[in-house]
Amino acid sequence: MPAPSLAAPAAPGAPSPAELPGPLTGSEASRRLLSSEDPSRPITLWGSSSMSSEGGDEATPVPIRIHEHLILAAAPATVHAYGVGATTSAHTLLMRGLDRPVATPSSTPETDTGTVTITLDSGLSPAGPLRIPGTLGEVPGHLDGSSGSWRFTPEDGQQKVTAGPFVSALAETAASSRQVLWMGKNNILDTTAVLADTQRMWDAAEAPETDTLVLGHWPTEFDAAGSPTGQALSTVNAEQRDRYGDHFLDLQELLTGQAGLTCAPIAPLRLLEQGSTQDALDRGVVPPLLVATDAIHLNGWGNLAVSWAIIQRMRELRWL
Fold first, then answer.
1. 112: how many CB neighbours lie within 10 A of its CB?
2. What number does CATH give the domain 37-92+172-316?
3. I need a surface site. Which of 19, 36, 65, 269 has the fewest CB within 10 A?
4. pTM for this structure?
5. What is the pLDDT along the chain (320 residues), one digit of tens a residue?
6. Residues 6+ apart with CB under 8 A from 167
């Protein structure tokens, strides 16, 4: 699975350090206090299709991908983007290496590649274009669920694959990084699992009290106030807001509240003056001018607002 780690150039017209106006203000001690704790630490993004910015190629002049904005903001730190569409919070645990199910081959190996169909003793079904590097027992390769069945392909097609635990190689990548979690929307009705799985991800961080930013879920037309998914979404958001404090970013408030809907990146839309916005807010859902045509993902404007809010919170947490 690709892990974007691009080194982004400065924006056109941005001043170089030598061009910044005036001398540095404050004492050296105060500048150290207010600076980023460690700007070189990598950041790993976990979640499903919203984290992969599906829908971000709609409405704006250019596609808006959340991970690309974070790459620019976090440079020179590396940003690993592991959002995979259609996945649940349980798939995120598998990717992170926190769940290590026993995988058992159920087919003969393909002649050229050694690929075998497998079953997982956890009972987890594949979802979306999920492809995870890792080891099955002692055999390195990758686990692929994109076909609708779990398949494991060894790096060496001649190596025999036998039953054993599957351990994601992404665990090593994530071990020392900060993390942003936007997980569980696809299984939001199971509020207990979403909360527990998110907590496991939180606890797995190198410094759990400081290393994680949890993103809240936002209501689509399918999550209107009073609907089962709307109630579940509000339950998860409320619990995580209480549990994680400043390390929880309330995207429901951002995308349905007056302050968020007039924030700098989307101010030109003049959302509060639009009749469609008021109709949406009356139903407790995000205004349509921020939502893609599939009605379940944010469009470029929505992603721009979320990117802006994440970067602002990261600065407040001194990640940047």
1. 7
2. 3.40.50.1110
3. 19
4. 0.88
5. 444 333 333 332 322 223 333 333 444 444 444 555 676 899 999 999 999 999 999 999 999 999 999 999 999 999 999 999 999 999 999 999 999 999 999 999 999 999 999 999 999 999 999 999 999 999 999 999 999 999 999 999 999 999 999 999 999 999 999 999 999 999 999 999 999 999 999 999 999 999 999 999 999 999 999 999 999 999 999 999 999 999 999 999 999 999 999 999 999 999 999 999 999 999 999 999 999 999 999 999 999 999 999 999 999 999 99
6. 97, 100, 134, 135
CA 67 to CA 100: how far, in whole Å? 27
Domain ranges of the chain: 37-92+172-316, 100-167
Of the candidates 111, 109, 101, 112, the residue with the CA atom closest to the CA atom of residue 136: 101
Q: Which residue in this structure is represented by tokens 């250019």?
A: 62
Identify the three-state secondary structure at position 180. strand
Sign of CA dihedral 252, 256, 260, 266: positive
